[in-house]
Amino acid sequence: HKRVTRVVTMPAHASPTFAVLGFLTIALQRFGLELSEGVVLQATTVVLAVTVLFCFTALRESAGIVGTLLFLALVATTSTSSLLSAQPSLSSLMLLFVTFSPLILLRKDVADQGRSFLRGYVAAILLGAAAALVQQFLQQLGHGYWDPVQSISTVFLIPGFNSYYDLQYAGGLAGQFKPNGIVFLEPSFLSLYCGFAIVYLIASFPSKASPREMLLVGAQTLLAGAGLVVSSSSSGVLILICASFPLLTRLRRSAALLAGLLIAAITALQLGILDPLLAKVTEGFDGHTSTALRLTEPYAVLGSAWLESPLFGSGAGAAYDAVINSGIRGLQATTPIRV
Predict the structure, then answer these.
(1) Of the candidates 263, 247, 23, 14, the residue with the CA atom closest to the CA atom of residue 124
(2) Helical H runs in the chain?
(3) Which of 96, 173, 309, 315 would be a feasible disulfide site paired with 85, CB 3.0-4.6 Å?
(4) Distances from the Cα of 72 to the Cαs of 62, 75, 77, 144, 322, in angstroms?
(5) 292 in helix, strand or coil?
(6) Cα–Cα distance, 195 to 191 (Å, whole number)
(7) DSSP state of 150
């Protein structure tokens, strides 16, 4: 018997719509609206919800039985743990539901739409990287730290994030700040997403690219790399380390692109451009360094909180509460410890 694969016919407007939704997922991450005390509706939650609804309506996608049961199990377990928590976070719960719904409800034959979403997603990251370079350039000229989002009322912004860091805490110059690319919640997010963009651009690089395509991808990769460097954060470096083997395998197919990126990296190293990032990566784990606050202390401090209820958890937002209650300034609730 021949296996018949169902093909989803995508409406003409669907591809650009997905690209716009992907763009907004990054571009609006600093925005939200406080519905009540402690409950913030994040703009990205709304964007992701619209994305899911668009999949069901425009693409006429249907949920499978297994996917629906898995989603209901996720809703039941996370809702129960939140109800048992002393301070449940409804904002985190909403974001959790919306984030996981397309992964377990939708079928797997919407790859084209996913690629369109990612293209918009990466476009917003590159825009943020370009904005970070402008922020850094203005600081070097003595014009101070530029972040127009700070002029917006805090009622419409997501609270609880350090949108900018004074580099003096890391032995840098007083009055110099880490760029956040304007659209990102924190400078570490700029680094993280730029690392993701580099991986995506190289992984999606066509095996038989024209000189124009090679130049475009090379320029975009360098822009994302520059955003990662000026962030003075090592979050994106971890992504590149994890993806190094498949990336090198991919780059072998394009000697010209590989040579160009190597030349750019060596030049930046010789000119000292990479010095702040290298200092960040090699700062070590002694004391409350930024690296320790992200990679070791969360597991030491928050691990004990997890052991209090290892089976059912303590509810959405429990990691954030544990961070606040720890009293350690700058402690990060990393993704693995949240999970």
Answers:
(1) 23
(2) 14-27, 43-58, 65-84, 90-105, 111-140, 187-203, 211-230, 235-242, 244-251, 255-270, 275-281, 290-295, 297-307, 318-326, 335-338
(3) 315
(4) 15, 5, 9, 50, 27
(5) helix
(6) 6
(7) G
Angle between helices 90-105 and 43-58 (to 10 degrees): 30
DSSP state of 152: S
Q: Are 55 and 61 in contact (CB under 8 A)?
A: yes
Q: Which two tokens stand for residue 207?
A: 């095996």
Written as six digits, the tokens of 102 are 């397309």
What is the chain's pLDDT, residue by residue, as a tens digit (339 residues)?
444 444 445 554 567 888 999 999 999 999 988 777 767 888 988 898 888 888 777 766 666 677 778 888 888 888 887 777 666 677 778 778 887 776 665 555 566 677 888 999 999 999 999 999 999 888 888 888 888 888 888 888 888 777 766 654 444 444 577 888 899 988 888 988 999 999 888 888 776 767 788 788 888 988 998 898 888 777 787 788 777 777 766 666 666 666 666 777 777 666 665 666 666 655 555 555 666 666 667 777 777 766 776 666 666 667 767 777 776 766 665 554 444
Task: Dihedral sign for Cα 163, 119, 138, 141, please.
Answer: positive
Q: CA geometry: angle at 239 spanning 235 and 242, to 5°?
A: 135
Containing 35, the helix (H) or strand (E) segment is strand 32-36
pTM: 0.72
Q: Do the Cβ atoms of 124 and 23 come closer than 8 Å?
A: yes
- Distance between CA atoms of 83 and 333, rounded to whole angstroms? 21
Query: Phi then psi for 138, rounded to 5 degrees?
Result: -65, -35
Is residue 39 classed as helix, strand or coil in its secondary structure? strand
